[in-house]
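Intended use. Records like the one below are meant for learning the mapping from a protein sequence to its folded structure. Do not use them to infer anything beyond what is encoded.
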Amino acid sequence: MLIAELPRVDLSEPDCLTSLRRGLCETGFFYLRDTAAGAQRLHDLRKETARFMSGSVEEKMRTSEFLRGYAAFGSEHTEAGFGTGELGEGDLCEKYTIGVTPSAQDRSEAPQYYSDPEAQRYFRENIFPNNDFHRAWEVYFESLSKMAETLLGAVRQALNLSDSEWSADTNRPASILRFLNYPETRSSALRMAAHYDDNLLTLLHQSPSENGFDSLQVMLPNETQWRSVPADDDYFVVNVGEALMYLTQGRVVATKHRVASVPENLREGSARTSAVFFYAPNWDCGLRPVSPRGVDSELGQMAEDFGLDELRDPDGSIPYYRLQNRAVDRGFTG
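Structure written out for the chain above:
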């Protein structure tokens, strides 16, 4: 398997904007050195989540609600939500999800924003099986939220935009944190179908499999072949989402990616996990028009105009919630 040669970005280095600009505009994927979240916070998250995942399905399902808590193996269909629009075997992993829980002060400062019926999908109460799990997840979520905000500030600099650009679109983000547990599998299907993310930026930390098989793959712009993205403990893998592509009117590129099927001779020792932070804009953010030609249409999940016309407001912008809801309503959550 070919390896994706992705830019490596360290925001503490003075020349980081050059490599960041390349990652945003040329590859849509890049490595980001972990200078904020820290190994201990990630370790605590993985330890508590592994303990929970080792329980019975019946126990785990007690924490399952719409877009929160546990999602069983195969119950979500990325292919349907973000890919071809068809139901396949489902994602070959089990998941856990938390999101933003607004404080009383948040709600008092923006009562209409949080009370709108559409907002209820994005600001639901989180579910935690125990206090240690709760603490580890909340700490990690907070650290990744801050890291994502810092990264977005660097994105503005890399694109020569003002510090206030998108400030009204990202001051109350609808971000989520998901943990994906991929066990060894006998299936020859893709572990997760090819897709684009629909948020601003995705910050993913993946564990290497015991046998070294790299499951995460990307199809870089202007290529027709898949390349693997190896795990690196010191780095996050970051990718551009469609929302950021629309906000920049195509100046940055959202890149197709998938979690590959495991060859029969490598199935033993192929288990892996990913902690994935989806940094999203405000749920009512108006995404700016972008030419459909700026998006790859091979997936077939959108018509020739990528199905955007039906989502647009009269001014041509696309409210983020319509883009995200479409994916969920197509069967992303089983």
